[in-house]
Every structure is written in structure tokens, then in C-alpha cells.
Design goal:
Blueprint: E1 30-31, H1 41-44, H2 47-56, E2 62-69, E3 72-83, E4 89-90, E5 97-98, H3 102-118, H4 144-149, H5 167-176, H6 191-205, H7 209-221, E6 227-228, H8 244-250, H9 271-275, E7 285-287, H10 289-300, E8 304-305, E9 308-309, H11 313-320, E10 331-332, E11 337-339, E12 354-358, E13 362-367, E14 372-378, H12 390-403
Parallel strand pairs: 1-3
Antiparallel strand pairs: 2-3, 2-14, 3-4, 5-7, 6-7, 8-9, 10-11, 12-13, 13-14
Length: 408
Amino acid sequence: MRILPAFCLIFAGLAPAMFAPLADPAGALTQSSPESVGLISSRLNRIESAVGAALEAGEIPGAVVLVARRGGIAYLKAFGNRSVQPRKEAMTADTIFDMSSLTKVMATLPLVMMLAEDGTLRLEDRVRLYLPGFTGGGKDNIILRQLLTHYSGLPAGFDLSKDWFGYPAALAELYKTNATAEPGKEFLYSDLNFIALGEIVQSVTGKSLAECSRERIFVPLGMKDTFFRPPLALAARIAPTEPRSNTLRYLKGKVPAELPDQILRGEVHDPTAWRMGGVAGHAGLFSTAKDLAIYAQMLLDQGAYHRGRLLSPLAVQAMTRPQSPPNSPQIRGYGWDIESRYSSPRGDILTGGYGHTGFTGTSLWVHPPTGVFVIILSNRVHPDGGKDINRLRATIANIVASAVTEIK
């Protein structure tokens, strides 16, 4: 377990960590004063009151908030506690979080785009070209693009009341699943879309999603605290979530009588990803604010980073511009949310960007017009389910927008 930095302060139920230099191994980010990157520090300081109100209301046990602009981290603070049961532990800026659905855009999406750039696959191809079992039930004409934009017609998730367990069993369930709408006609956010994409990555590379993402994304970028199935040695830094029995009830899953009523720590929260062994295209990734910032900066830099290039500028633009069918009210890029009912991390003012949320209480919003990105990591589901934090996400985005002094 790492020694807590001397800059961590604990008072009045808050544990804001003072600014700390980030020795980014990718060399893409530096610690900066807000004013040096065109942000007003007095306005950013209002984030503390917003998070404090959420702590007081019991919406979250704690959080880490990071705001960056122009390659500089202008705000990084830890608040509250990362654990309240079975004992209290102060939140720290290097806390590792279950990223939940941010897995979709941090691992599966970039791998799919890299494979498209390599010429290994095409986004207009039918899924069954890569997954021969993906046929019948209205699935035959679903293409990869529709999986990426959540216009495939697949249902939101598996029926967890069925007694199945293991990755092969999950694929069998996927192949048996019927589409609920005609492909390309209706928006329905679906974990099954990215479960299918994750299996496509594995089928064409011959490597697990965990291995492929580590080799092609996390190691090159220097994201040393990002992984599926985190090692037990890091358990003390991981934010706990809630008991497995709670997570299964979310999707009406069967709760085994012998299941221990123990709070999860370092084990994936998502019940489907858990049944699949902890590695899935839709969930299972663990990471920190610092590592997510490295990834976000790469996107703002149009795919480039200190040691080279992860994606081409055109691939980043394709991912982050509208890709939904024409005249759709729910606007998505490839993987990324742009303007939909899931856009709470952009707030009311920080429009014109893209981002994503995670069920456990995580979110990222990237705003190219100003070069700003906002990271909010919390374990809102700890210790027993948590509350809606969309208002907190939007409030912080509004505060950050108010701190921008000029548009680049």
C-alpha cells in the first residue's frame, strides 16, 4: 500500500488533496496553475462546494475531480472517503476506480478503430462476418457501425435470471438473443453491442481484450494503473462498491444462496462482466483520474502522444462526430455520447464536445472547442446502491465552463 501523500488534508468530512505534480510517463500532461491555461482558479474552487453538497446529501461517499486544459492539469482534488464500510478510509487522488461503462470508450472502441485503420475490419461489415454464430432473431444485417452507435436493435442486456456463467456461456446467450428493433431505426443503449465488439476484437486478433488493450493502449500511453482484474496487491487503493447480491438485483439476476454478502473491492461491479470472468467489452476496466487524463489528452491531441501516435486524426474525428442515423434526436459518435439523454457530464454550457458515463459513478467529458476535459470519478454505489449523481456531473461541468477565460 502506498503512503498517503503529505498534501492530503482531512476535515469536516471532506478530504481535498492539494494540487500534486503528475509525473506522466507519456509526457503529455503537466501540473499547471489554472490561470496559465486560461482558467479562473476562484471559479474552479466552487467545485468543492458542489461536491461537498453531494457528500452531505449522501449521494457519494467521496470523489476525485480533475480538470485539464492545453496539456496542463489545472485542478485535481480528492474529496470525502473512498470507503465508509466496513471502515472509513479517506479518498486520495490516486484511488483506483471501477470504470464501469467507460470500458467501452477506453478499451473496446479504440481497439476497434485501430483494427479498422489496420485494414483488419470494416465498420460497415456485418457482425456475422466476424462472429458466425451471430445470426437469426433479426441480427443477420446488423453492422459494426450500429453496434458502435447503439442503433443495432439489440436489447440493453442479458436476462440474468437465466442460470449461466462463464465467457463461452455469455457468447451462447448473445447468439441466442433476438433483436428488439430493426437495425438502424431506434437508439437503445446496450451493453450487448460492446460485448459483441469485444468478442470481435478477440476473434480477429487472437488475443484477449485485456491483453490487446494493455499492449496497444495502456502500455504505449503509460497508463500504469489501468487494467482489467486488478492485482490483489493494489486492493488498498481501490474504491469499494457494494455486495454482489445488490448488483445482481439490478438486472433481476439470480442470487445464489451461498453468495457472501461482502462489499466488492477490486472485483468488477457489473454483474454481466462478473459472470463473464471480469473481462468484457462493455465493463470491467479499472483506472485512475491520472490515467484517464492521459487518455483524454491523447484524444484532444488528435491521436498523438509523447511517444508517437495511437490513432490517426481522422479516426479520432470519426469517433467523436455525429454518426447516428440522420434526424435522430439521440446523437452518438462511435462509442461516444454527443447529445442524448446520457449527456449529463457536459452540463448546460459545455456543449460541443463528447463524453461517457459509468454506472459506478464515473464520467469524462472532452470539449475540443476550449481544449478542456473534465473527469469525475466516484464510487456512488458504495456501500449499498447510491443515488443519482447526474446533477452533480452537470453542476461541475457548468462551473468549469464558467472558468474558461477565452476560447482557443
